[in-house]
Each structure stands twice: as C-alpha cells, then as structure tokens.
Write a structure and sequence with these properties.
By secondary structure, the chain is an alpha/beta fold. The chain is built from eleven helices and 20 strands. It is globular and about 75 Å long. The chain starts with 8 loop residues before the first helix and ends in a 7-residue tail after the last strand. Bound molecules: zinc ion. The site of zinc ion (ZN) has 7 residues, from strand 9.
Amino acid sequence: MSHSQPISREQIQETQSRRLRKLIPTVAESNRFWQSKWQAAGVDLAKADFSKLPLTTKAELVEDHEAHPPYGSNLTLDVGAYSRFCQTSGTTGQPLRWLDTPDSWQWMLGCWEQLFELAGLRADDRLAFPFSFGPFLGFWAAFEGAARLGRLCLPCGGMSSEARLRFIEENQATVVCCTPTYALRLAEVAADLAKQPGNSTASEMLKSVRLLIVAGEPGGSITSIRRKIEAGWGARVIDHWGMTEVGPLAAECVENPGGLHILETECIAEIIDSATEQPFDLNDKSATIRGELVITNLGRIGSPMIRYRTGDIVELDRQPCPCGRPLMRLKGGILGRVDDMLTIRGNNVFPTAVEAILREFPEVIEYQFEEVTRDSMPQLRIDVETTVGLSNSESEMKQFTLLAERIAAAIHDRLHFRPEIVAVPTLSLPRSELKSQRLRRRKGTGS
Ligand SMILES: [Zn+2]
C-alpha cells in the first residue's frame, strides 16, 4: 500500500484538521458553489469553525445544476482542468453530472486502495467487474484503483449474464465486484446454466471466486441477503459504501462482518438527527447514536462536498473492532434511506428491514414493495416471485397461501404490521446491475 493506516484517533483527527485547513480556503477562494452558499448563510470563514458551516442537501445540488447547466457550479477549477465525467443514476430524482480533475480522480483511486486493504485483497487476486461501464461511477474507480495496485482487472461490460459467468470461469477470477442484487442474479443464472446437459455445475463455474465486493444497495450488510449470496457463490461477501457525490468511502473489514468502516483520513463523518439537523456527540456513551450520515470529503478538491447529507441512516458501533483499526464503524452498514421511510400503522418502516425478513425465506426469489391505501389506511403491498410457481393448480395456490401467511406472520412479529402479499410470475420483477428500486412510489395515492 502506498500509505500507512493511522494508528490512533488522535492521528485521524490531526489528519482531518490539516486537510480541512487546506480545503476550506481553497474552496472559498475559487469555488462558486461554496462561495455563494456560505455567503447566503452569512458564514464568516475567519471566525466560523467547521461545525458552524451549513449542511448541504441533494436538493441544493439539483437546483445548482439547473441554474448552472450542464455541470453545476461546484467546480474549484476551470472546466478545462477536469478529465473524468460521471453521473448519478437519478433513482431519487434528477441525475447529477459530476466532474473530477486528474488529482481528484487519483484521490478516488487511493480511497479504493484502502478499501481493498480492508477487504483483504491479496497480491494474486484477479478482479472481475460485471458492470456496464456506462456513465455511472459504479466500479470505474474500483477498477482503476485495483489496476493501480497491480492486480489483474477484468472488465465485463457489454456482456450478457451468461457470458459474464463464462468469462469469470475462463479467467479464473477470484474477486467479483457488483451490486448485491446482481450477485444474486448471477448465482441464479449459474444455477440455470448448470441444468443444461454438458455444462459445469454452478459451483464449478463459480469455484475460482473467493470474494464478492458489493455496493450500490444496502443489501451487503443485511445478514439474510449476504448469506444467500455467500451460499450461491461459495464465497465471502464484503460490503462497500460510496456515493457519486462524495466518492468511495467505506467498507467492511475482512476480520469483522456486518459493519462498515469509514475512511476517516479521507473524510469527516458526522451523524445527525434528521429532524433537528443537530449532530450527535459521537463521544456520548449514554445513548444509541442512530441518524443520518453526513460526509465531508477531504481530497476531492476539484468538486468537494462539505457537510453533505447523504440521506443514509446509520448507527455508530462503539465496540472496538477486532481488526484493531481505529476507524469509525457503522453497525449493520446502511440501515435505510431517510426518504424511503414508510409509516405503516404508526410504525416507521424501512424497506431494508422488510427485505431482511423476506430473504430469510429460501422460497422468495425477488420482490417489490408498494405503499397502498386500504380502508383509508396506509398498507404495504409486497409482490413476490417465489419458487412455489404460479400455475393455477390448486396445490400450488395452497402452497403459496401458506408461504404468504408465514411471511406475513414473520413481518408482523418483528415489525408490528401485517403486509399484503401478492404472487407475481417468475422473472416479472426487475433485476438490475445498478441500484435496484424495490420500493415503488405512486404519486397521489392519498387516503
Ligand atoms: Zn474492523
């Protein structure tokens, strides 16, 4: 690795302050977005400390893009100084176009090098990227970061799932980087291919893979989902977190599954109460700290984000991690999205919590949620594809009814409401190599 891991909290804080002392004046001098934002908020940079800087939202970025097309005004340098382009998938609204300078891009690759170190990447690993390599950031930086480390990187853009599986097998890839949903999909395809005469079994096809690095959706830290991926591939899952707006900034360490370490030498992470917008005191040992993750990245000088509300709900893990790294750890990874929260019969429900329960049923293949209104009350409808089948035979219908009853009871037990469960035909629900949108929102479904 080109850098050494910090060994204490003091070193992390010292690094953060040093980098912040460089970032803030640079941005104040030449970045129109931050200049006008801070001016409007009446911030006196000579006096204000970091905690007095205003929070930043996605809505502000969208507005800024509309006012300053096509790239917005968060550009510290002239447009001519930028060499990389990516855009958000626009799953939660208008896509944002994001530019990086060569320096900022190198910073992104450096983040990935550290994430790979957390994931336990080995010198002889070969990485396959079943990803489309279109304009989404996705695994572009992971690909180049691994290549910069000297690992063999296998691009699998523009291929069918079947071709990707053959490619992985032929090249004996040991690590696969994709979304959790797509990891499940590839395992499904491998199982289907194995049924054809003359083909290898699914486990032979996937045998070379020892590790999956998944990102783009919260699934990687949900125990039931990761178990399903690990069982399908016979390989270990490592969850990763990043966003187009802030870069790749967190991953699970190989020593301790089920949480995300934040790369705190590369960013400042805060957890705020979404309602009051006040940051929690992360040293307060008396209460559970659970709220929205706020990120300031410290090395993407060309288009930095300062106190950015990610919209992701996280919980601080106070237990020292067995890996010995002093980096902040988020218990259970990303727990849900602030904007995905549904209120069903007085309960605050995150789709990820429902997802975790659904994945405990091996009969469930894929699903989608929708908030519907029944007798003027909000209700959750879940469409499920199951292995039970959908012929109109009486025995299958009966099997499905029993399964739906068991699922509804499990959700009722743990989340305190009873959903409506509807059987849908096999392969009728979308699978994506990008973010899967399993929550369908219908505008104007008033009660
Ligand atoms: Zn750890």
